[in-house]
Amino acid sequence: MVGRWLEGMAYVSSRTASLAAPVYPYASAWTFRPDVWAERTRHAHARQHQTVSRGRWNVVSLQCAAFALPGGTRPVDLKSGHPYWLVKNGLLHAFPRLVEEVRCDVLIVGAGITGALIGDHLARAGLQVCVIDRREAGWGSTAASTALLQYEIDTELQDLAERYGIDDAVLAYRSCLQAIGSLRRLTRNLRGIDFQPMQSLYFASRWYHQRRIEREGALRRAHGFKLEILQRAALQQRFGIDSGAGLLTPVAAETDPYQLAHRLLGRIEARGGRVHARTALERFTPVRGGVHVETDGGVSIRCQQLVFAAGYEAQRWIDQSVASNRSSYAFVSEPLPGLLGPLDKTLVWESARPYLYLRRTADDRLLVGGEDDHVDIPMRRDALVERRAETLRRRVLALFPALPLKVAFAWAGTFAETADGLPFFGPHEQHGPRVHFALAYGGNGITYSLIGAELLRDRFLGKSHPCTALFGFPRLKRKAGRSG
Ligand SMILES: Cc1cc2nc3c(=O)[nH]c(=O)nc-3n(C[C@H](O)[C@H](O)[C@H](O)COP(=O)(O)OP(=O)(O)OC[C@H]3O[C@@H](n4cnc5c(N)ncnc54)[C@H](O)[C@@H]3O)c2cc1C
Best substitution site from 313, 366, 368 to test ligand 1's pocket, by max atoms within 8 Å of Cβ? Predict the structure, then answer.
């Protein structure tokens, strides 16, 4: 360990501050602090630097990461600032820490929205479920989510079709469409959840995106998706947006993901399942007929199936690089009762990447996100929260100049993207058939989480699910451009 540390120090100090500083604010010859680096980065970041930076910087980052990896499972710093759901709800329920040995059918690592949805689906299917989380429930990325629920994937249907063929592209879109309906039905049975059906407007924010948007609309329509293709006059008249083209889809929604996760976790307990906060998986070993897990408190768990619903931290358990981490910024405005106009019923997002996105909240605020960084460096993210919120505010005002928009709470969070915008659900060959991953990565992560919950439930019940192949790790071996 010391050797690696010295190697890293020597490597970094041989670079000049001017070379190192622009990329890694705490990796310059003068300011480099290995203890800070070790605390604030970790395996996930090392992997992300690996994919983002190449050449000389890659070497620097890997050398630094080498001594940031003591082999334990210390948490990644997932969020900055004041995520609104935590401010609004507080700690909804303190689930107990796990202190005794447990046997269960399925152990789920992660009590965010993904783990909560999976656990709820499995418990309702009659399986004995145990959910553990190293933090408080919902305290990971779920608390930072802006929670626009859309069937539209960050990768447009036309791009997905080019990559995997039209059948699989439509399958992905249609599954997301159905997932919005499933989420709606699910929340109907959970009283008091902030869940609001909405429409979604995707508009061309660059003049040269206009034709692309129109082609996208035509392709979706040809495959049975209901939507309106709006031209400039209609966009101006109905939304006051100055853009050459937009797609208005009637199926979308918004929710409070932290509240929803808590309510689902409560329902798992009510069905006889277990939920434990402040309990981290430290190590696991696939054994005959199941998986043996040890927690940070030295407690053993024996399960037949293990599911990592550990959000962006789950990447540390897979050696293969499957996604890149980014930072996304958000703010919620002071309440704007009666002033939101068409935004009261419409989620809005743009065609540029990274994109600006907006929605209302149940208490009449405007929730705005975007300004993503290509890399996720927690210290840098902490420092940028207020400035990025102001940039986002100005960008919204450029679209809707009459809104008296004031930032109430601003925050940022880690956010992971796969190369094709699709998630991963299922086992990875590295750990065998009983260790499953639920990586609901991408802009519509929550929609994916619902699909993942259905897919894993079907898998454990011995049923097939249409998305198993497309949303599984084996797709990484597929050649782009081929269907099937
Ligand atoms: C700023 C921002 C905006 C977003 N906007 C949207 C949006 O508009 N729409 C949308 O659909 N999605 C959005 N997303 C994505 C969405 O928030 C995520 O897909 C979702 O929250 C991920 O939930 P999760 O349960 O998978 O992860 P998390 O909420 O991070 O939960 C994983 C849990 O696993 C726990 N854990 C990790 N390691 C261990 C371990 N070893 N032992 C025990 N527990 C462990 C963590 O403590 C954590 O609580 C956004 C994300 C961000 C950051």
Answer: 313
Task: With beta carbons less than 8 A apart as the criterion, state whether 437 and 109 touch.
Answer: no
214: buried, middle or exposed (CB in 10 Å: 19+, 13-18, 0-12)?
A: middle
Phi, psi of 195 (to 5 degrees): -140, 125
Pick the residue whose CA is nearest to atom 53 on ligand 1.
413
Domain boundaries, the chain: 2-66, 82-143+258-318+421-477, 187-253+323-413
- Residues β-bridged to residue 435: 306
> What is the spatial distance between Cα 73 and Cα 419, in angstroms, rounded to a whole number?
26
> What's the whole-model pTM score?
0.88
Question: Is 147 near ligand 1, meaning CB less than 6 Å away?
Answer: yes
Instruction: Determine the 3-state secondary structure of 122 from DSSP.
Output: helix
- Ligand 1 pocket check for 440: Cβ under 6 Å: yes
Residue 370 CB–ligand 1 contact under 6 Å: no
pLDDT in 10s for each residue of the chain, 484 residues: 333 333 333 334 333 333 333 344 334 333 343 434 443 444 334 433 333 333 334 334 433 433 333 334 678 999 999 999 999 999 999 999 999 999 999 999 999 999 999 999 999 999 999 999 999 999 999 999 999 999 999 999 999 999 999 999 999 999 999 999 999 999 999 988 999 999 999 999 999 999 999 999 999 999 999 999 999 999 999 999 999 999 999 999 999 999 999 999 999 999 999 999 999 999 999 999 999 999 999 999 999 999 999 999 999 999 999 999 999 999 999 999 999 999 999 999 999 999 999 999 999 999 999 999 999 999 999 999 999 999 999 999 999 999 999 999 999 999 999 999 999 999 999 999 999 999 999 999 999 999 999 999 999 999 999 999 999 999 999 865 544 3
d(CA 154, CA 444): 8
CA of 413 to the centre of ligand 1 (A): 9
**Is the CB of residue 366 below 6 angstroms from any atom belonging to ligand 1?**
no
Q: Pull the structure tokens for residue 157.
A: 């249907």
Say if 82-143+258-318+421-477 and 187-253+323-413 have the same CATH topology.
no
Provide the CATH number for the domain formed by 82-143+258-318+421-477 in this structure: 3.50.50.60
Binding site membership of 359 for ligand 1 (Cβ less than 6 Å): no
Q: Is the beta carbon of 171 within 6 A of some atom in ligand 1? A: no
Residue nearest to atom 21 of ligand 1 (CA): 142
Whether 40 contacts 74, CB under 8 Å: no
Which class is 187-253+323-413 in CATH? alpha beta
Residue type, 333: S
